[in-house]
Amino acid sequence: WNYHSFILKSALELEENKYMKNGKFSLFCEFSEANGNEESRTVSSDDSYFTTEINNIVTLHKDLRNICSHMKYSDVGLRVENVTLPAHKTFLSARSPVFSVMFDQDMVENRSDIVDITDIEVATMKSFLEFIYTGNVIFQDGASALKLLLAAEKYQVLSLKETCAEYLIPSLSVEDVCDVIVVADKVNQKKLKKGALDYIAKHITEISNSSEWLELLKTHTELSAEIFSYIATHFELKPRKN
Question: Which residues contact 152 (CB under 8 A, 6 or more apart)?
């Protein structure tokens, strides 16, 4: 690329007039776009077309968030814990194949315009809808992310499953890794399961003393065997110090 991989902050400060405008640092780059044929185009990040595209995306995101907040012209209600959350069949169907089948067929939910959901909490469903409409979600903690992952699995929103996994992997802890690997195994989220396996293998001494680990061994025998096999194959076990 003929460019340095890193630029020191001190270098930017020394040449502030060159790189900084009004105290802000702007990164300019070029994108080459190919459509599979011989035709291609290069767009610079300071190009007016590029700026317009970015502004359009930002505006679209704001508009979708506004729809999610007010639910104007909603045509279906998701009834969760005696609370009915308004939504739009079009959005739900576009993002979830489960909802798509539900609304395409002559099912009770389609005729009544009410979907009763008994296994998901209100807070989780609100976060789920936030992602459905905007593609974004704010996680409160690992426990809420796990609940959202289960909701994503139920309605087969694969991009949300991936988002939950990306949040959970770097935030794994001795206290929650057993719960995480059980859910990851249940929903077949391979990346998250691999991350949990690696974490358990590296911290097995601390984890093996926890009540969560003992519960996992008791209630998930096949998964436990898989964990031990993974540790034996990928990591060298060190004897405990007396």
Answer: 128, 158, 160, 161, 164, 187
Residue 12 — pLDDT band, cuts 50, 70, 90?
low
CA torsion angle 9 13 17 19 (round to 10): 0
CB 123 within 8 Å of CB 144: yes
Q: What pairing do the DSSP bridges indicate for beta strands 24-25 and 30-34?
A: unpaired
Rounded CA Rg of the chain: 24
Burial 209-238 (b: 16+ CB within 10 A, else e): eeeebeebbeebeebeeebeebbeeeeeee
Q: pLDDT tens digits for 61-93?
A: 788 888 877 777 889 999 999 999 999 999 999
Which of 64 and 173 is assigned the larger pLDDT? 173
CB 155 within 8 Å of CB 99:
yes
Q: DSSP letter string over 187-227?
A: HT-HHHHHHHHHHHHHTHHHHTTSHHHHHHHHH-HHHHHHH
Boundaries of every domain in the chain: 58-171, 172-235
- Give the domain 172-235 fold: 1.25.40
Give yes or no for residue 108 having a pLDDT over 60.
Answer: yes
More confident residue, 32 or 176: 176
- Phi and psi of 94, rounded to 5°? -70, -30
CATH 3.90.1150.10 assigned to domain 58-171? The reply is no
**Measured distance between the N- and C-terminal CA atoms of the chain, rounded to whole angstroms:** 54
